[in-house]
Amino acid sequence: MPFLGQDWRSPGQSWVKTGDGWKKYSNEEDNNCVSFESNCEGNNKENIFDTFNCGVAIKKRKKDLLNNNAKLPYFYRDKWIYVHKESTKERHGYCTLGEAFNRLDFSNAILDSRRFNYIVRLLELIAKSQLTSLSGIAQKNYMNILEKVVQKVLEDQQNIRLIRELLQSLYRSLCSLVQGMGKSVLVGNINMWVQRMQNILLWQQQLNNIQITRPNPAGMTLTDLPVCLQLNIMQRLSDGRDIVSLGQVSPSLNKLSEDRLLWKKLCHYHFTDRQICKRLIVNEKGQLDWKKMYFKLVRCYPRREQYGDTLVFCTHCHILFWKKSLHDSCHPCTANNTESCCIPVAPQDFINLFKY
């Protein structure tokens, strides 16, 4: 028969029947007693509560095992999180970036090809400026998710350059934090962070040693397609470095990779007319060199970011969530028209959402 204490938010207390009669325990102690009793069925009931410290020791050993096992994945499976920026009587505190990183299901999102680049971009932004704002468990989750990303790239042999740039950014940030600002800004033992930096160097070496297996040439290849289809495929590439790499495959593809209209469309896709007018480059023939202009614009301005799937923020109920499909959301929204109040969240907007 539980009853409430003076603070109505406290767990309360319960009466438990023992061999010596009825005794009063708090709810947390009662739960520990039940788990301890199931593990000690052979012992006498008279000694259960006398040896209550045994249950506390077991719980402490489990906690120490979780903290010491750095490779143990600690992922949450929630699909949404309420973003609150005020401290109320019912809910204390603020929603932090570390809490959002823990609660949202980033582990399974990596396996989705539509969300992979989005997750990698988030990891890169956190590595550059927000790593110290994460809690200890959030930093552990960050490294576990990063390890899962690297293992996926090593198995699929895709997005190698993207992950290599992420690891370089993270390693530079950790070097500046450890050497410049000191170890006090990082949660945990400094030796643990040194070990993580060594793991990053190991991952970089593994990525550099990847030998991409050539496909079986029995079927049709890209060069067997008509020229118009080859050019159409190149126009769907959003990174100029991919176009340059594709042009190194064969002389015919190299000729197509130098197409002026191809680079012109790529410049207008990523940059505005005002930005393009400030970085005009004319070649020897008196024509605009769109290829050189693109790489110069990339060094001066950020490129346009486009992802297959992103996190969505509901302006009506202030919930950040992963969307199941285009017409199905997985958060408890009370609005009549959920599509009008749900907006996609870019990686930088995700970081800014938790700045106060």
From TrEMBL:
It is found in: Cytoplasm; Nucleus. SMART domains: FBOX. Pathway: Protein modification; protein ubiquitination. Pfam families: F-box-like. PROSITE patterns: FBOX. GO terms for cellular component: cytoplasm; nucleus; SCF ubiquitin ligase complex. Residues 219-266 form the F-box domain. Keywords: Cytoplasm, Nucleus, Ubl conjugation pathway. Gene3D superfamilies: 1.20.1280.50. One of its GO terms (biological process) is protein ubiquitination. InterPro entries: F-box-like_dom_sf, F-box_dom, FBX25/32. PANTHER family: F-BOX ONLY PROTEIN 32 (PTHR13123:SF6), LD30288P (PTHR13123). Substrate recognition component of a SCF (SKP1-CUL1-F-box protein) E3 ubiquitin-protein ligase complex which mediates the ubiquitination and subsequent proteasomal degradation of target proteins. Probably recognizes and binds to phosphorylated target proteins during skeletal muscle atrophy. Recognizes TERF1. Part of the SCF (SKP1-CUL1-F-box) E3 ubiquitin-protein ligase complex SCF(FBXO32) formed of CUL1, SKP1, RBX1 and FBXO32. This is F-box only protein 32. The lineage of its organism: Eukaryota, Metazoa, Chordata, Craniata, Vertebrata.
